[in-house]
Amino acid sequence: MNQDTMKQRAAEAALDYVEDGLIGVGTGSTVNHFIDLLATIKERIDGVVSSSEASTARLNEHGIPVLDLNIAGELALYVDGADESNHQLQLIKGGGGALTREKIVAAASRRFVCIADESKLVERLGRFPLPVEVIPMARSYVARELVNLGGTPVWREGFVTDNGNLILDVRDLEIREPIGLEQEINAIAGVVTVGLFTRRGADVLILGGPDGTRTLT
Ligand code: 5RP
What is the mean pLDDT of each run of 10 residues along the chain (217 residues)? Predict the structure, then answer.
């Protein structure tokens, strides 16, 4: 079975968590399946807070109302994908470059349901290069600081985030203490957000696989 079908299965299972009202949605190919499925029950929800321009465009195509988070207030549910999850449901996100808005919407939600294909579950975070969103003038400075932490940052050239910033993808990092590393990288001047989601990881992880889905909490 291909990876995309496994992503679709995870997205289908996440529909069971949707209640009436407002929900948050993330970004990426797994979330795209979720948005398409959400369109089939759109009468049941009041609207969606989106984490990216790409997801907003897809929601608009389906005629699903998109609300500003400042108007929406606290959300009952956030559904998003991930690049990696460990068994504590701490995540690496930002492969699609939407990490900052994703982290904001996740923080503003009572329950975070993460959907992924089973290849995303890892014993230790860090095989996937860790995305860091940076203010453009700080790119070289932040890169030097990341080298001091033992990483090898690579500028995602030609890519600008929805917030007008840049992404450094950091390889070779030993992520032994994800919570501490999230705080340490976020504290570097010029960093907007690191793609480690540990202080606010997922509450539920739905993994799609060849035999169906399994759920970790
Ligand atoms: C975007 C993300 C995505 O959730 C992550 O990259 C997973 O994407 P996909 O569902 O396409 O595998 O963090 O910033």
Answer: 93 94 96 97 94 98 97 95 98 98 97 97 97 98 98 98 98 94 98 98 97 96
Under 8 Å CB-to-CB from 61, ≥6 apart: which residues?
none
Q: How does 152-171 read in b/e, with b if 16+ C-beta sit within 10 Å?
A: ebeebeeeebbeebbbbbbe
What separation in Å is there between the alpha carbon of 95 and the centre of ligand 1? Answer: 5
Q: What is the pTM of this model?
A: 0.95
Atom of ligand 1 nearest to the CA of 81: 4
Q: Is 102 a known active-site residue?
A: yes
Candidates 84, 102, 133, 182; catalytic one: 102
Instruction: Give me 150's structure tokens.
Output: 């033992």
